[in-house]
Amino acid sequence: MWQCVWEQKILKFFYIATMPFKFHLKRSRQYNVVSKNQYVICIELLDTTSIECTLNIDSLGQECLDNVVQRLGLGQPEFFGLRYISRHGSPSPRWVDMDKPLKRQLEKEAKNFSLYLRIMYYVTDVQLIQDEITRYHYYLQLKSDVLESKIQCNSRQASLLASYSMQAEFGNYDAERHTTECLQQCSFFPKDVIQAEPGGPDALLHNALCQYKNLGGVTQAAAEELYISIVMQLEGYGNETFTAKDNNNTEVILGISINGIMLAYPKSQLTHFYRWKDISNVINHKKTFRIECQSDSEDAKQFIFNESRDAKYVWRFCIAQHTFYMQHQESRPSERSNNGYFDSDTNDSGEQAVSMENRNMDDHMHWTSYNDLSTSPYPVVSVSSTDINNLRALLPSYRPAPDYETAVQMKYNNGGNAPQPYYANQSTIVGPDISCLLGNVVNRSRY
User: Which of 103, 284, 375, 398 would give a disulfide with 340, using CB separation of 3.0 to 4.6 Å?
Assistant: First the structure.
């Protein structure tokens, strides 16, 4: 027996002596190799809560976004992106490249390993947001943009938006619960609007509360749609701005959105807007960013950034916004064209140049361009008359509309107890008509 014990001790001694240098077992006597290839990252959501994701070191940015989208149940993930705070220059948010390993991007560019789920692609029609959870997060993004003064509004518009925000978050007005003291604890107004209002925050809250009382019966989902539809009309909606200088060394602000590129000169207060259909190409070369127009009478515009990485980032962001524009705004079959191609030539080792036409460039110059921005990347779809007739046969039949007298009788005699449909897309900000939103609908509450 004692001999067996000594043999075990001797074998253990030789086992430890022959182990690799500086290789230590944990107390659990296990060495987990898998943990060395994984990491945990924190993502802040639009409601200010956070979730953690466990990823592999080679996981792409898209994998992280898919993880968040699945856990939140977002039905329209194409609107969302992930942001980080850049470590270069003044702290500024940057979008994660979804097609590259996330960990490498953050180690190279980010200030810390924190991500933020945000709306990256804005739309021009609230009806395009059909998923309820997506619309809720879209509303939270716009509310944040308004409160941070990224989207400009006056005191009247701010009060109207605040009333819709109250209805969307609290439901119908209740005098016992929704007192002035209670609502003062919430943020509904931008700081610049509060400072410009003679009556201060109390006057703004009073006006918003009066309008909130009249919204009884409006569902919380409808209030979110009304909020979104109004913000869509305000200055700054969907714009992401960058500061550069033109060839005359004059400061200029570039605002890039789904509709195109806006140029604003702060000193002269001049602005110019280029729609995507008016732009033929955007080019990046080192610190320069160049806009070429379709019209021969319009001169190309060139801008200089402080860093080459900033110019390249703006170029990539333009490509992303234009691609989304083509896919979601003008990708209808009747509007497609067969002459739209993407042309990219970059000196990144991980990117390949795709060229659809010959370009005359000096061999020593390395340009990054995006050609034919005014056209769609999709080919023409040829449909014969026979196909059209077959497609028409598949369309559902609709009942004929009644005449005026019949419609009035149906409304007051038969349809008194039927729930009324609502249409939340509002064309003007002044005097919103919410009568169509009033119906026998039970308000839901998220809180």
Answer: 375
Pairing of strands 270-275, 279-285: unpaired
Distance CA 383, CA 374 (A): 24
Q: How far apart are CA 232 and CA 157, in angstroms?
A: 12
166 membership: H or E segment, kind and range: helix 155-170
Single-letter code of the amino acid located at 424: A
Question: What residues contact 188, with CB distance under 8 A and at least 6 apart?
Answer: 147, 158, 161, 162, 165, 166, 204, 205, 208
Count of CB atoms situated within 10 Å of the CB of 100: 15
Query: Reading across the β-sheet that carries 93-95, which strands appear in turn?
Result: 50-56, 38-44, 114-119, 80-85, 93-95
Q: Which backbone phi and psi does 81 adopt, to 5 degrees?
A: -150, 175
Per-residue model confidence as pLDDT tens digits over 252-280: 999 999 899 999 998 888 889 999 999 99
What is the rounded CA–CA span in Å between residue 430 and residue 327? 32
* C-alpha to C-alpha distance for 187 and 48, rounded to whole angstroms: 14
DSSP state of 338: S
How many Å apart are CA 61 and CA 380, to the nearest integer?
33
Q: What is d(CA 445, CA 168) in angstroms, rounded to the nearest whole number?
A: 8
Angstrom distances, CA of residue 397 to CA of 344, 380, 412: 47, 29, 27
How far is residue 420's CA from residue 418's CA, in Å, rounded to a whole number? 6
Tokens found for residue 117? 């789920």
One-letter amino acid of 49 = T
User: Can you say whether the dihedral through the CA atoms of 170, 176, 179, 182 is positive or negative?
Assistant: negative
DSSP secondary structure string, 283-300? EEETTEEEEEESSTTSPP
Tokens encoding 347: 């000196």
